[in-house]
Design brief:
The protein is of the alpha+beta class. It has one domain. Helix content is about 45%, strand content about 20%. The chain is built from five helices and four strands. A four-stranded antiparallel β-sheet has the order 1-2-4-3. It starts with a helix and ends with a helix.
Length: about 100
């Protein structure tokens, strides 16, 4: 189920998901992640729809930034894709959004 694949984190009181984990959970091809993340960070507003975690570069030198999406933004992204996984994520994210 989507909840095992996608971890919800709380950053400054906002529920968020890791963009890379979301990308993998939607079942998109791993080689296109860099183009995909550029597209979505250009569409959403920093510190509104997505946030950056620079601490990850200390763990993995190849990854310069880790992007986190708000649940609403992540759900909107999932709606664009027609995969079995994205359908499950849409429901899962909606349930998480409704939890207060």
């Amino acid at each position: 189920m989507a909840s095992k694949e996608l971890e919800i984190v709380n950053i400054n009181g906002v529920k968020m998901v890791d963009s890379y984990e979301l990308y993998i959970a939607i079942n998109l091809h791993i080689t296109h992640y860099s183009r995909w993340i550029k597209f979505y960070t250009n569409r959403g507003g920093q510190n509104i729809d997505w946030f950056i975690d620079d601490k990850l570069s200390k763990i993995n030198r190849k990854v310069k930034k880790r992007y986190y999406f708000t649940l609403e933004f992540a759900r909107g992204i999932c709606i664009r894709y027609v995969t079995k996984e994205s359908n499950g994520l849409i429901v899962f994210l909606k349930e998480e959004i409704d939890k207060k």
